[in-house]
Amino acid sequence: MGKTYPALDERLREFIREQPMYFVATAPTDGGHVNVSPKGYADTFRVIDDRTIAYLDLDGSGVETIAHLRQNGRITVMFCAFSGPPKILRLYGRGRTVTPTCEGWTDLLGLFGPHPGVRSIIVVDVHLITDSCGFSVPLMTYESDRDLLDRWSERKETQEKRAYRAKNNRESIDGIPALSAAETDPVNQRS
Q: Cα torsion for 57, 69, 111, 147, to the nearest 10°?
């Protein structure tokens, strides 16, 4: 049977640090498509305090998470052990999107490793922390991070990034507003 925790204590923080990837789930308020996104690069996730987490949002194929958070704020972040003892950890909360135009951007950005193609930072106020067994999660061996996303972003000129973000980051696949033009201007944003 799973447990509920009052806070992200050191043991849970250590479990999070050991995982090379995590998953983010959001959904629109009514109908539409539920989104689950795998996230890599361990240096893109930080525990801020006992009930606050944040992750670096990099250029990607869409903006479902941002659109859903701006619509209703609901988010779940899940870690699962692919090595060692079986465990799944879920962090349920209310998320918000911090963009380069927001107060606190610079301080938050300094928490993360160096990456090009920074689009935003997702900050989550966690209201429920649970675990479960993970007995059916396969054992897998971690080789390394794929650097394809960073390399893709490094190759793009500013105008190419603007065009990409204008096409892919303004709204979700369900037409929910996501980022404005001012929020996605990629003028050398990197962590």
A: -20
**Residue 122 belongs to a domain with what CATH number?**
2.30.110.10
CA distance 47 to 88: 17
Gap between the Cα atoms of 181 and 33, Å rounded = 24
Dist CA 48 CA 123 (whole Å): 9
Q: Which tokens belong to 9?
A: 């204590």
Residue 163 lies in a domain: yes
Q: Is residue 24, in this structure, part of any structural domain at all?
A: yes
Question: Alpha-carbon distance 149 to 94, whole Å?
Answer: 27
The residue range of the domain holding 96 is 4-135+143-184
Whether residue 75 contacts residue 25, with contact meaning beta carbons closer than 8 Å, is answered with yes
170 or 55, which is more confident: 55
* pTM beyond 0.85, yes or no: yes
Residue 162, judged by CB atoms within 10 A of its CB (0-12, 13-18, 19+), counts as middle
Question: How many domains is the chain partitioned into structurally?
Answer: 1
